[in-house]
Design brief:
three-stranded antiparallel beta sheet; two-stranded parallel sheet; 74% helix; 622 residues; 19 helices
Amino acid sequence: MKRLALALVLISLVFASYSFAQCETSSGGNLGDQIKSYLNAGDKLETRVIDTEYGAYTLAIINGADAMLFSNADSRAVTDPVLVYAVLKSEYLAENKVAVDSQTLIGDMDAFNASRNPQQATCEQYTGTGTHECTDFASCRYACLSVPLCRGSFEGQGDNFIYAINSWRTKNSEIDKAISAFKDAAAGIAQNPEQANSANSYLTAIEEKATEIQGNKLFTCDSGGYCFCYQINFSFTKLNEEKDALAQIKTVLAKLPDIEKKGNIIAAITEQRISAKKASDVVCQYQEKLAKVRANLTGTKAQVNALLTLVTSPTLSEKMALLQNLTDEMVLLGDSKNYSGAVSLGDSYLSIAKETTVHATRLIQNYTRMNDSLNSVKARLENDINLTGVGDYFVKEYTDIRVELESVSALANPPAQESSLLVIERNLTALNSRLATLEASGKRALELLEKAEIARTNFTRLSKSVEDYKQNYDLSEVNESIESAISNAKLARFSQADESLKTAYEKTTAYEASLAEIIPIIETAKEEYGRASVYLDERKGASFIFLGINAKRAGDICKSASDSIYTSPRDSVQFSQECKNAVDSELQGLEYKKYGLIVVAIIVLYLLYRWARKREWAFVVG
């Protein structure tokens, strides 16, 4: 048990976490320390935080030049030139206020759109296009004919008038579409300033179409000053304001290629510094890995060596030899400056070391479980030694289990074979099961023996009653059933023992019932005989001096009553009554004799008296 406790302690030590100084890496950790890990000796560092829609970033300015970009979220150095450019562009556009208020641009365009009325609405009324479709010559002609004023002009000017209406409506529709597209582009400028170019092209289209509408013959006056529709007062001032705002944006956007080049340079510098750091880190990683390997080897050796004193395991021995070889090879690679190869070998070591620890842990668990089972069976066997007093069957079973346990214990003695642990445990489980069965059988046997003892007590009481009341019962079957129950219980033949006890109980119960029925009659017979006997003795003395009753007949009857008290108690009662009757009959005859005797006695006395008187007279005379 001491060896086992020692092994368990060592296992807990192996699982304890080892603490080492960590190498600087290009990801994770404190952002400030992360940035410093990329500096060379003598480098001067400044930083600037850039908040963007992509998150917060920190720009590392090394020796006065923008050099590296880091993500504040995970402290990683950014090497993607596209992301570096996006971050720098976001900062640049924010500093130059490119994020123009989209609502201002949209509001100015709404003001321009409103400037078309009311002249445009009036012209739509004059031409019928306010209530009718006008998308080609035929539809525009139909709309015009629906209004008398327009129909008159058409009749006076001909088809050219309809073509003028169709041209106006087409260009007006194109202005509507350009306004809608402009507003969509303006709404997205804050997120994508490049949309300023699209918005500007829509402004140009709007301006061109508005100018063309102003030259349409519908809105030009003749020499007499007559115009079919009033000139539409487009607010070109608003368009010019929109152009100026977009021009400012385009001026800023013109510098974005330079920002992109700068992003590429920063990404390239970052790659260079990461490569340089990796070359430096690999040495640190090797040193850290080697320290971890050596510490693990020490702990694993202690664990396995302690365990091998308990269990012989070829697998663990082979793994320990392999771990030692890997450690030695790792040192050789490090000495030859093949640090990457040494680190890779260290990873292989730790993987195999983990497998070794898992195997050792499972092995010690198996051994512990086996050892606990062994101690449990031993303790149980010692507690069950009293079972041997139940009978020969239990003595044999107990002895067989003890012999088998000694055989299993010999296999379990340290160092036990690894391949035998599970077999030993299965054998111990089987022995434990046999002991449980033996205990249950012993308990059952003791219960039956207790019942047999009760049956024997009842049998003894029955035998005495049978003897006391002189009944001719054959109790041998009851006794044999009890002895059979005891014998079968000791041999663990419980069904036979139950059957024998049942037979003994039924027979005893039947005899007791029979006795219970006959005993009161016997007692009555005894009482009647006693009274008859006393009656006879008392009446024998009831006689004169020379006269007594003839008690022979009554005595014979009373003897018959006595003789049949136990064999035929009902007859005995009858005989006792007849005995008394015979005594009474004798007494009645004795009365007659008594009176006759008295008469005779009187006569004799009288004769004696006469004789005496004669003698007296004779004497006197003589």
